[in-house]
Amino acid sequence: MVLSFENGGDFDRARELRAFDESKAGVKGLVDSGVERVPLIFNRTWIGFTDQDTDPTTDESPHSIPVIDLRCIHMDPAWRSEIVRDVQDASRRWGFFQVVNHGIPESLLDEMLEGVRRFHEQDTQLKKAFYTRDRSKKVLYMSNFDLFSAPTANWRDTLYVTASDPSDREELPEVCRDILIGYSARVRQLAYTLLELISEALGLKPSYLKEMECAEKMLILGHYYPSCREPELTMGTTIHADNDFLTILLQDHIGGLEVLYENQWVEVVPLQGALIVNIGDLLHVLSNDKFISVNHRVLSKSEGPRISVASFFRAQDMMGNASRFYGPIPELISEENPPVYRNIDLKEYMDYYIGKGLNGTSALTPFRI
Ligand code: OGA
Ligand code: NI
């Protein structure tokens, strides 16, 4: 595979992206083969892609994302309304929070991270069988969903799983089959609980968002961020907001996830046993800008690999051919609060999101009124 590290006259970006993709071995494959420097296709500084990182360093930020304790939500109505207020405040100001005492045992979280590690670290030949960009597949593994559209590639490989019902068992990768099924069931339950709290936080009845089918479909992304010798030259994940209603993220102890808050990058410091929750673009639209889907990114690190598991909650058919429209919730609009978005065809939105790739711009811009 030809990879350039310096800009010579013969650097052919498209050719190098193709060669990398055809290797089917991902960034991990590069690192395993002894590549120590960051190839130009991954080098964001070379194309001048800076992700607003001229801002003050995150270490100096006095802020940290809110942590919400879910222990008492079903026990005491007074506690519950306090939690709803916390969810409301966090969703409005941060678009991100962490939850503790969420009901999923820590051992299950650890096993899920280990399952993703086993997938990425299994025999390359076995792993390659899953490498594809065909989104109709229930299980796919690839590096950079936007490899050919984004301005710069990220130092990250990902396993995508949409099938996680016991009935899909045979289609799941053997090395993480059981834990995918076990984790999905629990995280889906948590998503329903969170949608209830978020519905209430919007002043709606608790079942509102679930009935709108905001969590009909779950996509699990098992990210693997190999360690990098030149971490300042590349990104783990470029600045973006999520293309779903709600995300529940599990990260390991390495760190590197940063959230944009008041125009500063704030690190989401790993908190043992916690899960990170964030509002996606589509919930941002439903709430008519009341709750925000916030930009975030993952830095590359010299430590690693870093492993994270993002569960994306979506409507059925977002990728399919059937049109499905979502716009600001009627109860939340009024004369003083006119709709800020037109009704969005989910397929049109997804095509736009994927087509532009992670490039620092919002995928909601074309849909704003
Ligand atoms: C994502 C994401 C963060 C992480 O999958 O959209 O932002 O820590 N992941 O991997
Ligand atoms: Ni994200």
UniProtKB/TrEMBL annotation:
Similarity field: Belongs to the iron/ascorbate-dependent oxidoreductase family.
Record keywords, A-Z: Iron, Metal-binding, Oxidoreductase
Database matches in Gene3D superfamilies: B-lactam Antibiotic, Isopenicillin N Synthase, Chain
InterPro entries xref list: DIOX_N, IPNS-like_FE2OG_OXY, IPNS-like_sf, Oxoglu/Fe-dep_dioxygenase_dom
Name of the protein: 1-aminocyclopropane-1-carboxylate oxidase homolog 1-like isoform X1
UniProt domain Fe2OG dioxygenase: residue ranges: 214-315
PROSITE patterns: FE2OG_OXY
Cofactor: Fe cation
Gene Ontology molecular function terms on file: dioxygenase activity; metal ion binding
Highest taxon listed in the record's lineage: Eukaryota
